[in-house]
Amino acid sequence: MKIKITLPDGSVREYPKGTTAEEIASGIGKRLGEDAVLAKVNDKIKDLHDPINEDTNIKIITLKDKEGLDALRHSVAHLLAAAVMELWPNTKRTIGPPIENGFYYDFEFEAPISEEDLPKIESKMRGILPTWDRFERSEHSAADAKREFHGNQFKIELIEELSKDGKKLSFYKSGNYTDLCRGGHLPSMKMLKPDSFKLTHLAGAYWRGKSENPQLTRIYGVAFANKKELDDYLKQLDEAEKRDHRKIGKELDLFSFNELTPGSPFFHPKGAWMFIRLQSFLRELYPSWGYQEVITPLIYDSELWKTSGHWDHFRENMFEVEMDHKKAALKPMNCPSHILIYKTKARSYRDLPLRITDFAPLHRNEIKGTLGGLMRVRKFSQDDCHVFCTPEHIKKEVRAHIAHAKYVYDVFGFDFRVELSTRPENSMGSAKMWEAAEKSLKEVLDESGLKYNLNPGEGAFYGPKIDFHIKDALGRSWQCGTEQLDFQMPQRFNVEYTGADNTAHTAVMLHRTVLGSIERFLGILIEHFAGKFPLWLSPVQIRILTVADRFEKYATGLKNEFEKNSLRVEVDSRTESISKKVFEAEMERIPLIIVVGEKEEAANSVSVRTLEDKKIKFGIKTEEFLNRVLDNIKNRDLKFNI
Ligand SMILES: [Zn+2]
Ligand SMILES: [Zn+2]
Predict the structure, then answer these.
(1) Which of 84, 193, 417, 487 has the fewest beta carbons under 10 Å from its own?
(2) What angle do CA 565, 553, 621 make, to 5 degrees?
(3) Which residues fall within 8 angstroms of residue 98, CB to CB, at 6 or more apart?
(4) Does 270-296+334-528 carry CATH code 3.90.1720.10?
(5) How many whole angstroms separate alpha carbon 355 and alpha carbon 508?
(6) Quick one: pLDDT at residue 248?
(7) Is 382 one of the catalytic residues?
(8) CATH class assigned to 535-635
């Protein structure tokens, strides 16, 4: 009997029934046979050794695929547990899954261990590794399994759960180490390079994530296909740590947080200036985008949230307050506010598209443990625009929004990619409407020439959407902008317009942003630029250093002149050495450092050093320098060339 196997390139091959994925991989090529980790059979992950008995699609998974790396990382978690059990035999093991970039394993140690123990564990792992090859699977009854893990209440709990309906439990044995596991390993540990993994840190973790349970010790590690990938990752991690916006935010005195209002940033003068600068940047663009800015309330009666659906679906994330002895809440999004403005008068198709935008603060009651600097906050503002339009407008609107996003991201030097998410299962609105909307989004994306990924079924229940993901200097991806079509909210609120046919129609609503949360965008910018902002965005643009205190008057005169042109300038006239003053200005990441002394004063000139490329130019006429600075700021250049 032959079966037909369809490969990812669409080609079909015939094999005898019972062929394994391993044989198929080796048949395609020796290299693929060696690199194969798992197989995806009809979109399900299978072991390489499982026989295949029917016609099917198959994809061979290697360490280039996420699933392959997951198998490698999970296999290293076994190795970690084996090493820990050899070093501290009375330890109780729990679980060890793969995670992004690595793995962890949770243990209950008899006596606490510290991060200083990690090298010892790591070298034990390397010692054990050569004695391991394949993971041998065996099946056991619950009673057998409990005997094996006698005294380990964590594994016993898992065994009881997994064997509830009399199911057998699978064990995997590698070398002398056996663990309860459902599978997903490397076909051979020979594929794991001894220098391609590293233990990184310890953390406390509650058993099954519940605070009423015992606290365990979690050992984290990272693992990759080879040493180079591990090294690249560690280097990037190191760079990311140096650029951490919380660290730089503190060094540059941009913002702080206070336990009295967790997750709500305090922007200090310099941070606030940057925040406002971002808003002003957009406000300058708004007239040409046809946007009209509004100012709206923060607190609304719960009646509004019932109509919008938030009371049923989002209430946990809202801060509730009382207003006129009734329940009310702080708004988590602006959409209903803009609908209320829309509905203050009758609208005709001739009034559309109507584009309303708002920087109002929004509040979302995020879980405290998930808050992180500016990236995840409870209070934030968005460049939040809502377009009310007719179905015929959609295409043109989407096209315009892509152009807006591209323009803005270019200013910061961000590349971006686009994702299109389509109709999910529990969608609202007619199939016809969805098809038309998705078709117009696709057409616009195709004609834009942008590469985009399709996420079938990942759209919001109220409409399809496109998301913009920007790529920062470290190659990390951040979703910022979005354009979401919404057929639902306009129906809930009866958002109507009079059509050319003189009858009432329900408007289409587009929810859109370019920056997204401005707080978060600022966090991204701090890390992207490592605190070395372009001149137009820099909270201090120029610092004037005097070579001796008798030049203070000249320095102050320059400062006044620059400030008249709205520049942000500081003078350092302390009796410190110039090298020390330059060093400090560099540490504070001030983009332009001016040094003034005898020659400069006599010629009404300045000597300029740039932070970014550390170039120095002597004796530039003050007026020329000022003009070049103003030009640079006006153009929002990324660099200042002297
Ligand atoms: Zn396992
Ligand atoms: Zn909205």
Answers:
(1) 417
(2) 55
(3) 69, 70, 71, 72, 73, 74, 77
(4) no
(5) 12
(6) 97
(7) yes
(8) alpha beta
Where exactly are the structural domains of the chain? 2-62, 68-240, 270-296+334-528, 297-331, 535-635
Known catalytic membership, residue 74: no
In the chain, what is the straight-line distance between the N-terminal and C-terminal CA atoms, in Å?
77
Residues of the chain where predicted confidence (pLDDT) is lower than 50: none
> Which residue in the list 78, 331, 335, 581 is annotated as catalytic?
335
Which stretches does DSSP call E strand in 408-561?
415-421, 452-455, 465-471, 477-486, 496-498, 504-506, 508-513, 542-546
137 Cα–ligand 1 center, Å: 10
Q: Clarify whether 383 is annotated catalytic.
A: no
Position 1 scores a pLDDT of: 81
Q: What is the DSSP letter of 507?
A: P
Q: How far apart are CA 298 and CA 300, in angstroms?
A: 7
d(CA 239, CA 206): 30
DSSP label of 318? S
> What pLDDT is recorded for position 232?
94
* Tens of pLDDT, residues 215-259: 999 999 999 999 999 999 999 999 999 999 999 999 999 999 999
CATH assignment, 68-240: 3.30.980.10
- Residue for token pair 């701090």: 526
Which member of 382, 385, 541, 543 is catalytic?
Answer: 382
Active site residue 465: yes
Q: Is 446 exposed, middle or buried (0-12, 13-18, 19+ CB in 10 A)?
A: exposed
Check whether domain 2-62 has CATH 3.10.20.30, yes or no: yes
- CA torsion 39-45-49-53 (nearest 10°) is -90
Please name which ligand lies nearest the alpha carbon of 76.
1
